[in-house]
Amino acid sequence: MQKNGHKVLITGGGRGIGRALTTRFIDAGNDVIVIGRSQPADLPTGAIFIACDLNDRVARDDLIEQVKSAHRDLSVLINNAGLQHEGNFARDWHYDDYASEMETNMDAMIHLCDGLFPLLEAAPQAAIVNVSSALAIQPKQDAPIYCATKAFVRSFTKTLRYQLEGSSIRVFDLVPPLVDTDMTRGRGTGKISPEDLATIFWKAWLANREDIYVGKAGLLNMINRLSPRLASRIVRHG
Ligand SMILES: NC(=O)c1ccc[n+]([C@@H]2O[C@H](COP(=O)([O-])OP(=O)(O)OC[C@H]3O[C@@H](n4cnc5c(N)ncnc54)[C@H](OP(=O)(O)O)[C@@H]3O)[C@@H](O)[C@H]2O)c1
Question: 75 CB under 6 A from ligand 1?
């Protein structure tokens, strides 16, 4: 992919992984539109912010219309915003807690891919980047809906890639391991920083490597190929 000259829309670009990607794209000479529910005080200089609650279908329709009228030169869509709830079906299952997780992690991604497709199709070089997770390879016991949504993201991304073969749109699956962000605060060890993840992403982006396994996600993928049972044991308890 070319290094600069893109107009990028990134969901959840104000914090965590999204913020590190936003900074990387801006520093390389791209224009970036950040989507989130509320504008962060420290939005990277040069980014444009559009407020949208991605759980709200009508708000997503409005966002798509706004981008179609003001940013017709959009060439990169990064579906990064995501939520993770931990819970147990047997003890504390409440469907309402999980509905927003499904809406943000899956529906919003599909809706934006669909709604913004005409702009991407018209760009000379375009890309869709969907952020899945190492937990899409094997699930952990405490996050049943999250892991299932990320497996969905992975599968959807792969078929989208098949369907867009031969077009000017490349389709990337960014597969992070445990990253040190608000989402993982107080959980896990051996996390990588969002900035290190962005560095690995950037190399893969420039090299057109569409499956981007970051750090331990790559190792897990390899183990899973050789022994799914071992990979499952490693991930099960997080
Ligand atoms: N951190 C990890 O270890 C890890 C590992 C694998 C995959 N991932 C994936 O990487 C992506 C980013 O994760 P992160 O760790 O950077 O998360 P994070 O620090 O919790 O940030 C989440 C971002 O998503 C936005 N967001 C959440 N719900 C939204 C909604 N309803 N509408 C609009 N924006 C919304 C938030 O913005 P507002 O709060 O302003 O709305 C925020 O910018 C997610 O898809 C996650 O599943 C993370």
Answer: no
Alpha-carbon distance of 216 to 104, in angstroms, equals 25
The reply to whether ligand 1 has any atom less than 6 angstroms from the CB of 10 is no
Edge-to-edge strand list for the sheet holding 169-175: 48-51, 31-36, 7-11, 76-79, 126-131, 169-175, 211-213
Amino acid, single-letter form, for residue 234: I
Contact assessment for residue 153 and residue 136, using Cβ atoms and an 8 Å cutoff: yes
Calculate how far, in angstroms, residue 42's C-alpha sits from the geometric centre of ligand 1.
16
Instruction: Give me ligand 1 centre to Cα 14, in Å.
Output: 9
Task: Kindly state the DSSP code that residue 193 receives in the 8-state scheme.
Answer: P
Q: Which two tokens stand for residue 66?
A: 């706004």
Does residue 223 register a pLDDT over 90?
A: yes
CA 166 to ligand 1 center in whole angstroms:
31
Complete domains list, the chain, with CATH: 7-236 (3.40.50.720)
The pLDDT tens digits of the residues spanning 63-86 come to 999 999 999 999 999 999 999 999
pLDDT tens string 82-132: 999 998 888 888 888 889 999 999 999 999 999 999 999 999 999 999 999
**Is the beta carbon of 39 within 6 A of some atom in ligand 1?**
no
Is 146 among the residues known to form the active site? yes
Does the CB atom of residue 101 touch ligand 1 within 6 A? no
Residue pLDDT, tens place only, 43-54: 999 999 999 999
Answer whether 204's CB lies under 8 Å from 176's CB: no
Active-site residue identified among 95, 98, 146, 162: 146
